[in-house]
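Hi support team,

I submitted a single chain yesterday and got back a structure, but I'm not sure I'm reading the token output correctly. Could someone confirm the output below corresponds to the sequence I sent? I've pasted both exactly as they appear in my results page.

Thanks,
R.
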Amino acid sequence: MKERHIILFKQLEAYREETLHCLKDISAEAAEIVPNNFKNNIRWNMGHIYLDQYLWIEALTKKKTQVPDIFRNWFSYGTTPAHFSAETPSYKELKKLLKEQPAKLKENYGHVLEEECPPTEMGIRTIEQVLIRTIFHEGMHLQAINDIKKCL
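Hi R., thanks for writing in. Yes, this is the structure output for that exact sequence:
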């Protein structure tokens, strides 16, 4: 693996640890609260962070990832906790998925980071570029989680 890819995965892991650290003092009950003037809660943001990386990989590669299709119903752009069902992963389950995801991404895609695909609408051509984009996206949702925490 190239040095820049090693660094990319270290960044992915470090930023994910920041997200998980932010969640450590949040109860499952608090993660369900949608404060006034917000559309989503902490649990939705967690699921959205998890799903987003796989959606971008699927959009780029045109291949199915390991994420169940039903996750789109709960955590895609435009959804809200009103879309949750009894099968929606719990706060605890989402924390586990988020913790495991960087290692799974490295295992499943670390060897194909530079393989070019037809570009997405943003011009993204490689999984390496997807991961860079999704690290930024995670930071936006980490801020949303922090903003919600301030309202709790």
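A quick pointer for reading it: The mean pLDDT is 97. Let us know if anything else looks off.

Best,
Support desk
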